């Protein structure tokens, strides 16, 4: 179990702190797969690319103007 107090969204110049009600949901692994139908065979060929395994998730929280400390 991981307990995190704050979330940070960053780019090369700025950082946004989400400290009120941070929520991570819908954590899922994504794998690229393709299906090739064949002419003479009963079953298709299914190929998976294991090198392109990446994750997607949704984040949520409260963003307010009162947390700007700068």
Give a short synopsis of this structure:
The protein is an all-beta fold and 70 residues long. It has strands at residues 7-10, 15-18, 20-36, 45-62. The model has no long low-confidence stretch (mean pLDDT 80).
Overall pLDDT level: 80
Report the strand count.
4
Helical percent range? under 10%
Order of helices and strands: EEEE
Main pleated sheet: 2 strands, antiparallel
Strand content: over 45%
Number of helices: 0
The helix/strand class is mainly beta
N-to-C span: 33 Å
Give the secondary structure arrangement, pairings included.
Blueprint: E1 7-10, E2 15-18, E3 20-36, E4 45-62
Antiparallel strand pairs: 1-2, 3-4
Distinctive features:
70 residues; mainly beta; two-stranded antiparallel sheet
Q: Your description of this structure?
A:
The structure is a single chain. By secondary structure, the protein is mostly beta strands. It is 0% helix and 61% strand. Strands 1-2 form a two-stranded antiparallel sheet. It has a two-stranded antiparallel ribbon with strand order 3-4. Strand 3 and strand 4 form a beta hairpin. The mean pLDDT is 80.
């Amino acid at each position: 179990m991981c307990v995190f107090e704050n979330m940070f969204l960053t780019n090369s110049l700025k950082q946004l702190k989400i400290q009120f009600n941070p929520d991570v949901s819908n954590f899922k692994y994504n794998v690229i797969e393709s299906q090739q139908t064949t002419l003479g065979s009963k079953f298709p060929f299914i190929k998976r690319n294991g090198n392109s395994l990446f994750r997607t998730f949704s984040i949520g929280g409260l963003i307010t103007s009162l947390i700007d400390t700068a």
